[in-house]
Amino acid sequence: MTPMNSSINTVNQFNYTYPCERYAVAVFTYGHIIPAIFLFIFGLTFNLIALYYFHSSHHFHRTAYCYYFSTIALFDSIRLVVWCVFLFIDFKVLKMAFKRFECSTQMFIESVTSGVSVWITAALTIERCAVIFKSMKCRQRRGQRAIICIISIISFSILINLLFLKPGYYRERLYNNRTINILCLYGTDDLIGGNSSIITDQIKFYYTLSIVVFRTVIPFFLLLLANIALFICLRKYRTTRSISHYSFVSSRPKQRPLAMINNGQELKDFHSHYTLSAMSNPKNGSQELIKHGRSRRVTPMIFLSSLILIITVSPR
């Protein structure tokens, strides 16, 4: 192991033991770095556009959707910027040295920000389903409920990731030339001072694995189920609305010529019957307005946000 001038060390050069190792550099460059840079640019651009849109739109300003999407865009932007900064550090573009805290800092920030973004997206999708199924009950105090939900998710995500900041959680950061990747080695008691502790390397491994499952697998599974239920419900609703509209059109009384309406009472009866028949369709329209909120564009936005997070957030 040869120490370097920066914050990471490098593992000595390995001879190519397997034929596939000859393509490690090409795979790392074209299969990881270049797609990651494109995803970084795409994700950061989308987040900035979302922040501007939800704060400048009259339909969403100071609404629950504005709080949700703004928080998602802000935390996901922080995650992407931190990833880019540490990428520059690893490849010596930035001359910075965090020593032992480099791995802990990166892991804590990326885990908290990605967990907050994904769980808020899952909460937003689940709430959208609840609004459709229980429209009148879920529309009350939606903004206050959104703020409480956001604060709770942020606090819980910070709390469960605090162990990453424990001194000595990671011992050092290595650059493996053989596999072309960055390795964070766990620090053990005999290497960091001989202090007895119940947090062993195995516990750290399972803790890190559980955090990855908590911030990726579980929310993505909930997002998948919620989006499927959301689109099935909307599909069913549109079919019901089309049938109701067809029934309304077919049941409309044929308009008689004006010459046949020869007295005021008959004209009044005809107008009353037509008005009562027409009111049945606006009732469905008002229910649609209640169920879909201020704008129908919210549901596609939720689906697009879920898709972007699934693509850009990876369990690194």
From TrEMBL:
<feature type="transmembrane region" description="Helical">
    <location>
        <begin position="108"/>
        <end position="126"/>
    </location>
</feature>
<dbReference type="InterPro" id="IPR000276">
    <property type="entry name" value="GPCR_Rhodpsn"/>
</dbReference>
<feature type="transmembrane region" description="Helical">
    <location>
        <begin position="33"/>
        <end position="54"/>
    </location>
</feature>
<feature type="transmembrane region" description="Helical">
    <location>
        <begin position="205"/>
        <end position="234"/>
    </location>
</feature>
<keyword id="KW-0675">Receptor</keyword>
<dbReference type="Pfam" id="PF00001">
    <property type="entry name" value="7tm_1"/>
</dbReference>
<feature type="domain" description="G-protein coupled receptors family 1 profile">
    <location>
        <begin position="46"/>
        <end position="316"/>
    </location>
</feature>
<dbReference type="GO" id="GO:0005886">
    <property type="term" value="C:plasma membrane"/>
</dbReference>
<dbReference type="GO" id="GO:0004930">
    <property type="term" value="F:G protein-coupled receptor activity"/>
</dbReference>
<keyword id="KW-1133">Transmembrane helix</keyword>
<keyword id="KW-0807">Transducer</keyword>
<dbReference type="InterPro" id="IPR017452">
    <property type="entry name" value="GPCR_Rhodpsn_7TM"/>
</dbReference>
<keyword id="KW-0812">Transmembrane</keyword>
<keyword id="KW-0297">G-protein coupled receptor</keyword>
<feature type="transmembrane region" description="Helical">
    <location>
        <begin position="66"/>
        <end position="88"/>
    </location>
</feature>
<keyword id="KW-0472">Membrane</keyword>
<feature type="transmembrane region" description="Helical">
    <location>
        <begin position="146"/>
        <end position="165"/>
    </location>
</feature>
<protein>
    <recommendedName>
        <fullName>G-protein coupled receptors family 1 profile domain-containing protein</fullName>
    </recommendedName>
</protein>
